[in-house]
């Protein structure tokens, strides 16, 4: 299972075992060296004891002290030392003939190697003898005896075996303890993540107001939790907007449908000669519904992710003049004045012509609809920005936070059914698709409060 806990266990536990193995092998080698150093010291001790006893033999001449009989007595005495388990020895004369051998050697003869250093010789399959040679006397070649003193490594092997078992047993115990501690620590450390998974499993569209507690998480996971909370906040806001959109859509569609039904019922109950007026009312309401449906389809098409830009050069002044001309009837009715002389004749930009037309058709239409009668609407252009401004009545800074929301209108009673409240939402989406930005602000002038829409486009 590719879980974080298993991955940590899979890495940390073998790493601990490898480190312990290296440490155990190092400790074993150190102990082994110490045991054989101790064996060498025992051999030197035996040699020194033998020499000391030979020199201290009272009332005997030199020849008697160095005789085979006295040497045998001294070696037997040395063998009785309680610090020595088993002493092996043999004595060769100057002709390299065996003249004395310990019973412990049985039929085995020790090899002679020149020099004072310790050397080894296999004794049995399990035991090895550690040997030192001593010449008696040391300076005379004639009648010199070569005494070979040996000790076996039985005690060293026994202690090393016990030490090895202790290291192995300790390794097993330590590995088990380390594994248990590691499992406990990982379980405790990852418990907030498990709680996070449980909370996420219980989360749905109805309880997106819940948030993950970042403070209870390890510091390494907190950035992820914060981003996750941000994502949930955006989802919550999106669902809230969708619910509001559904409610607003039902309200917007219910009003003209109720009006059509009312006109039809009145026409059926009380027929009159002015049936054309009633049909005209129904036609007007139907057009409003058709306009709303078309607007919603446009917004849905813009919200789709597969919209591809078809950019081309657009001459700004003629383009905006054409859109203003499309609203000429409403402009004349409200006696509005459009001022475009602040836009250079040669000003142009490179963008999607269709999206740019939808954006400015909605912005200009919004200005025509809500500008007071007889006022001026200005279109302006600076490097990287196209703006429109008109006088507005009753708008506040708080209204600007909702002005691009779908179905939002300053008229909270929504008595004006000519507008659906979707135009600015469509303009905002068009600006985003063109990789631009649409902003709004209020400014105070002598003529009153004016609202400015700024479209910052990609240069």
Structure description:
The chain is an alpha+beta fold and 459 residues long. The protein folds into three domains: 4-162, Beta-Lactamase, CATH 3.30.450; 216-303, Helix Hairpins; 311-456, Histidine kinase-like ATPase, C-terminal domain (Heat Shock Protein 90), CATH 3.30.565.10. The chain is built from eleven helices and twelve strands. It has helices spanning 4-55, 62-65, 68-79, 154-201, 222-269, 275-303, 316-326, 328-334, 353-370, 397-400, 423-433; strands at 87-92, 98-101, 119-122, 128-136, 145-152, 311-315, 337-342, 348-352, 376-382, 385-391, 437-445, 448-456. The protein has a five-stranded antiparallel β-sheet, covered by helices on one side. The longest helix has 52 residues, at 4-55. The radius of gyration is 53 Å and the shape is rod-shaped.
Describe the structure using short key phrases.
transmembrane helix, five-stranded antiparallel β-sheet, Heat Shock Protein 90, alpha+beta, 11 helices, five-stranded mixed β-sheet, phosphoprotein, phosphorelay sensor kinase activity, histidine kinase, 459 residues, Helix Hairpins
Write the layout of secondary structure elements.
Elements: H1 4-55, H2 62-65, H3 68-79, E1 87-92, E2 98-101, E3 119-122, E4 128-136, E5 145-152, H4 154-201, H5 222-269, H6 275-303, E6 311-315, H7 316-326, H8 328-334, E7 337-342, E8 348-352, H9 353-370, E9 376-382, E10 385-391, H10 397-400, H11 423-433, E11 437-445, E12 448-456
Helix pairs in contact: 1-3, 1-4, 5-6, 6-11, 7-9, 9-11
């Amino acid at each position: 299972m590719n879980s974080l806990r298993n991955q940590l266990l899979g890495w940390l536990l073998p790493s601990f075992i490898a480190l312990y193995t290296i440490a155990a092998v190092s400790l074993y080698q150190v102990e082994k060296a110490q045991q054989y150093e101790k064996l060498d010291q025992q051999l030197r001790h035996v040699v020194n004891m033998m020499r000391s006893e030979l020199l201290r033999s009272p009332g005997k001449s030199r020849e008697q002290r160095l005789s085979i009989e006295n040497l045998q007595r001294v070696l037997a005495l040395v063998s009785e030392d309680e610090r020595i388990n088993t002493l092996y020895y043999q004595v060769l004369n100057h002709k390299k003939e065996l003249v004395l051998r310990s019973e412990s050697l049985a039929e085995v003869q020790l090899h002679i190697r020149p020099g004072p250093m310790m050397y080894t010789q296999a004794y049995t399959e399990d035991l090895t003898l550690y040997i030192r040679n001593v010449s008696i006397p040391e300076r005379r070649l004639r009648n010199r005896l070569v005494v070979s003193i040996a000790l076996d490594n039985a005690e060293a092997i026994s202690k090393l075996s016990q030490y090895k078992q202790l290291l192995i047993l300790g390794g097993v115990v330590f590995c088990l303890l380390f594994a248990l501690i590691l499992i406990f620590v990982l379980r405790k450390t990852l418990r907030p993540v498990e709680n996070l998974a449980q909370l996420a499993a219980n989360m749905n569209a109805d309880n997106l107001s819940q948030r993950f507690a970042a403070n209870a998480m390890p510091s390494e996971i907190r950035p992820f939790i914060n981003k996750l909370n941000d994502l949930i906040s955006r989802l919550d806001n999106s669902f809230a907007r969708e619910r509001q959109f559904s409610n607003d859509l039902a309200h917007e569609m219910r009003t003209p449908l109720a009006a059509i039904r009312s006109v039809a019922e009145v026409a059926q109950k009380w027929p009159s000669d002015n049936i054309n007026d009633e049909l005209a009312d129904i036609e007007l309401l139907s057009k409003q519904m058709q306009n709303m449906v078309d607007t919603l389809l446009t917004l849905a098409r813009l919200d789709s992710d597969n919209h591809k830009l078809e950019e081309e050069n657009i001459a700004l002044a003629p383009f905006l003049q054409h859109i203003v001309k499309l609203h000429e009837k409403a402009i004349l009715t409200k006696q509005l004045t459009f001022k475009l002389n602040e836009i250079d004749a040669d000003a142009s930009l490179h963008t999607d012509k269709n999206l740019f037309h939808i954006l400015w058709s909605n912005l200009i239409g919004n200005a025509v609809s809500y500008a007071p009668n007889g006022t001026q609407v200005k279109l302006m252009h600076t490097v990287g920005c196209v703006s429109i401004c008109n006088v507005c009545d009753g708008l506040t800074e708080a209204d600007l936070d909702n002005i691009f929301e779908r179905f939002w209108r300053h008229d909270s009673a929504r008595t004006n059914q000519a507008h659906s409240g979707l135009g600015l939402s469509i303009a905002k989406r068009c600006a985003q698709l063109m990789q631009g930005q649409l902003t709004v602000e209020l400014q105070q002038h002598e003529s009153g409060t004016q609202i400015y829409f700024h479209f910052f486009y990609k240069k």
